[in-house]
Amino acid sequence: MTDIQAAISAAASGMRAQTVRMRIAAENVANANSTGDTPTEEPFRRRIPLLESTTLTSGAQGVRVRGAAFDMSNFREEYNPSHPAADETGYVRLPNIDTLVEMMDLREASRAYEANLNMIEAARTMTNRALDLLRR
What we know:
This protein is an alpha+beta fold.
């Protein structure tokens, strides 16, 4: 495998990882107000993608998603005694999700995805230029 193919392989692994990051951030935002049905049931808990470096079959260093971990920070609480999930003091536990943080993570993942895409495009351009030179 050539260095250019290895570069494309590494960038593609980055794009796959960033896609997972975007999906998890979207799931977190979608569930930002999901409560339990009862006072004892936990609301949705924020998830965090776990990325790790890996050696690809091309020999290049890439990234892979090892999974997702739960954010064990405290849930938010809101006073709403009429809510079915309110406890005896009238407080409802809400997910430990800050939509602003999720949107920043989403933007960062989107930019990283785009950077990897640009790497692939640069590798393709280099390959095409080399082929053009060989045709002359």
